[in-house]
Amino acid sequence: MIQRSTLRAQIADALRDEVLAGRLPAGRGFTVKEIAEQYGVSATPVREALVDLSAQGLLDVEQHRGFRVHVFTPADYRAMVQARALVAEGVFRGPGGPDRPAPGDGRLVSVRRRAEAAERAARTGDLDVLIGYDLRFWRELGELMGNPYITEFLDRLRVQCWVFAVPHLRERPGLRELLWTGYRELAEAVGRGDDTAAGRLVAACDERCLALVEKLE
User: Fold this and answer.
1) What stretch or stretches form a coiled coil here (predicted)?
2) Which CATH number goes with the domain that contains 197?
3) 66 strand-pairing partners
4) pLDDT of 150-161, one tens digit each?
5) What is the rounded CA–CA span in Å between residue 190 and residue 184?
6) Which residues, including other chains, have CB under 8 Å from residue 196's CB and lie 6 or more apart?
7) Domain closes at, from 41, 69, 97
8) Three-state SS for 148?
9) How far, CA to CA in Å, does 139 sit from each of 99, 114, 147, 164, 189?
10) In terms of DSSP bridges, do strands 66-69 and 59-62 run parallel, antiparallel, or are they unpaired?
11) Same domain membership, residue 183 and residue 88
């Protein structure tokens, strides 16, 4: 039997994927009952999952009415990218830099695999594949830095940025030319402990993100 806490996480993950894919678009409202019927489960784990997603900034709670997918504005997106950039600058340029994985660390192998898959998807503009690998790549890369609080913060911001960007990237395929493709180069820079190169590559990624919102405006 699936434990309720596990079911809660599974529902939260499934709904987050729906939001990221645009199948639950920004501004879409729904009730606990609607989602419970959709997944064939009781209301309690659904309500808990929706509260979790609200805490992540993906949903808004509407008093006595249910929930609504949060609408991120271009200003929100720009602020999130800038926040990411400030944290990354601290990681790669702060006193002593991050803790580095040993050259034989098995986690580097996984990061490189994610990097290769994400880069292929970015070059072909395959959003459905890219989003999943992009999030895993950055999450695993963050774990190599050894600070779970930074990893969690950046993962949340990256999810929110994708929620804003995906509808625009689907509606205007030409914008996909702005997708960043430096995953493998960044993985190698982190693997060899080259903070300067890693910082430069992360900054280039953020510049691409800001270029996207400038195109929209």
Assistant:
1) none
2) 1.20.120.530
3) 62
4) 889 999 999 999
5) 10
6) 92
7) 69
8) helix
9) 16, 10, 11, 19, 16
10) antiparallel
11) yes
